[in-house]
């Protein structure tokens, strides 16, 4: 059972004329080499995500991690699930859960005052509720692991990092694993929440007041600033490692003949993906990944081939409708993993996380759109009263993007029906 969080064309190509400057020709050649090399290096594009829960308590003499790991990860590593059966095999599942403890020890990296320390799995517990294929990927069906790290003395600085599923990929892309983390020192009555990802570890600065005693229960303190920072960063990395979204946006930029046309089409895409991202996180809309991922792949093929065969339609209502329609599915793709991460947030922090994640997504898009538009400006389309033509190098780049999009579509359809 593998996680799956992910689914109009007129004029002949015009070869670069003799009037084209040497600089423009060199720019075109460079651009084509980059695009073709990039596309051919990726057999598929979706970036799969997983979200776990983690609770950290720092004591003077030991550190405890309590991790809720969704069964999808345990299956990826231990390969125990058989979709052909009417329900997961309980015995195999429990054996896999027990075996996964050693994997966690090797992929949680804890250091105290700069020195790495080793932990021990004290307990691994399956979910109390019955596990079915319908709830297999839910956090409520996750296995709980308690890991203890002995300390020689009270720490002043704790650093926790993770590289879960670094050895595994799906559809040509590495897994993005995030842990919604709550941490505190043993005497504190509030947890602080943060998002632990592979690229951004958690660091806890510890102080130990004299006479402080251990608190057995605690509430969770949510910082608006920390929420905004973590989810903006998460949105940024989500796009920078999500080549499906980047290639779709690149195809939109290639087909835009004027800056205003680009602004309109990118705005339509942004409105659409923000809408479905929000509705999905609020659990108001759910579309199976077997539909979403093929539609995202189809969006790449559609826009890229439109650039090749129907460049006249790369501006105006047709392109806006395509950007908006497919943008709805890209928003569902963005939502992968976020619904679980944000499910227990208070309304104000949920709104903050959504806005921050969206800002991170849009900033990542602009990191592609602005340089790419400037790079293509020397080759920008010449408009006539009869037609709109796209230079041959840009058509070739669009064709390369469409080929990779088609490869992704085939893989997405195959996995969706597996």
- Number of helical segments with 4 or more residues: 11
What's the total count of β strands? 13
Helix content: 40-55%
Order of helices and strands: HEEHHEEEEEEEEEEEHHHHHHHH
> Poorly predicted ranges (pLDDT <50, ≥5 residues)?
1-46, 383-387
- Estimate the global geometry from the Cα principal axes: globular
Helix-strand category? alpha+beta
| β-strand amount | 15-25%
Q: Reading side by side through the largest sheet, how are the strands ordered?
A: 5-6-2-1-10-11-13
The biggest sheet, with number of strands, parallel, antiparallel or mixed sense and barrel status, is:
7 strands, mixed
What is the terminal separation in angstroms?
10 Å
Average pLDDT rating:
82
How many domains make up the 3D coordinates?
A: 2
Oligomer: single chain
Q: What's the gyration radius in Å?
A: 24 Å
List the helices and strands and how they pair.
Elements: H1 22-40, E1 49-58, E2 62-69, H2 71-78, H3 90-107, E3 108-112, E4 115-117, E5 120-125, E6 143-150, E7 157-162, E8 169-170, E9 173-174, E10 176-185, E11 190-197, E12 202-205, E13 219-221, H4 224-240, H5 243-255, H6 259-281, H7 289-309, H8 317-334, H9 338-342, H10 347-376, H11 392-416
Parallel strand pairs: 1-10, 11-13
Antiparallel strand pairs: 1-2, 2-6, 3-4, 3-7, 5-6, 7-12, 8-9, 10-11
Description:
- The model is unreliable at 1-46 and 383-387 (pLDDT under 50).
- This protein is of the alpha+beta class and 418 residues long.
- It has a seven-stranded mixed beta sheet.
- A hairpin with a 3-residue loop joins strand 1 and strand 2 (62-69).
- It has helices spanning 22-40, 71-78, 90-107, 224-240, 243-255, 259-281, 289-309, 317-334, 338-342, 347-376, 392-416, and strands spanning 49-58, 62-69, 108-112, 115-117, 120-125, 143-150, 157-162, 169-170, 173-174, 176-185, 190-197, 202-205, 219-221.
- It folds into two domains: 22-46 and 242-416; 50-223, no CATH class.
């Amino acid at each position: 059972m593998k996680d799956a969080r992910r689914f109009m064309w007129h004029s002949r190509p015009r070869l670069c004329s003799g009037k084209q400057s040497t600089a423009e020709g060199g720019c075109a050649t460079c651009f084509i080499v980059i695009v073709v090399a990039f596309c051919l290096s990726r057999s598929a594009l979706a970036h799969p995500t997983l979200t776990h829960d983690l609770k950290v308590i720092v004591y003077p003499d030991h550190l405890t991690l309590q991790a809720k790991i969704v069964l999808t990860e345990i299956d990826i590593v231990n390969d125990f699930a058989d979709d052909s059966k009417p329900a997961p095999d309980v015995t195999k599942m429990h054996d896999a859960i027990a075996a996964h403890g050693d994997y966690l020890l090797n992929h949680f990296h804890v250091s105290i005052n700069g020195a790495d320390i080793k932990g021990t799995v004290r307990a691994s517990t399956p979910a109390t509720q019955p596990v079915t294929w319908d709830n297999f990927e839910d956090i409520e069906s996750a296995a709980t692991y308690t890991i203890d790290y002995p300390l020689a003395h009270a720490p002043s600085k704790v650093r926790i990092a993770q590289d879960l599923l670094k050895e595994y990929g799906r559809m040509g892309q590495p897994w993005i694993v995030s842990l919604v983390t709550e941490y505190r020192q043993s005497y504190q009555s509030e947890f602080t929440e943060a998002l632990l990802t592979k690229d951004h570890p958690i660091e806890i600065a510890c102080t130990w007041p004299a006479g402080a005693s251990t608190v057995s229960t605690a509430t969770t303190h949510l910082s608006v600033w920390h929420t905004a920072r973590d989810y903006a960063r998460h949105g940024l990395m989500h796009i920078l490692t999500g080549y499906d979204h980047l290639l779709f946006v690149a195809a939109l930029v290639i087909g835009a003949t004027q800056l205003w046309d680009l602004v309109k089409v990118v705005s339509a895409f942004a409105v659409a993906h923000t809408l479905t991202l929000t509705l999905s996180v609020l659990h108001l809309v759910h579309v199976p990944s077997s539909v979403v991922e093929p539609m995202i792949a189809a969006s790449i093929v559609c826009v890229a081939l439109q650039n090749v065969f129907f460049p006249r339609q790369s501006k105006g209502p047709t392109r806006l409708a395509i950007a908006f329609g497919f943008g709805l599915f890209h928003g569902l793709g963005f939502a992968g993993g976020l619904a679980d991460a944000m499910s227990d947030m208070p309304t104000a922090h949920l709104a903050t996380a959504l806005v921050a994640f969206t800002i991170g997504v849009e900033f990542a898009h602009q990191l592609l759109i602005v340089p790419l538009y400037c790079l293509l400006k020397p080759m920008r389309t010449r408009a006539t009263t009869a037609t709109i033509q796209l230079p041959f190098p840009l058509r070739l780049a669009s064709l390369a993007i469409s080929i990779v999009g088609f490869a992704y579509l085939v893989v997405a359809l195959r996995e969706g029906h597996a």
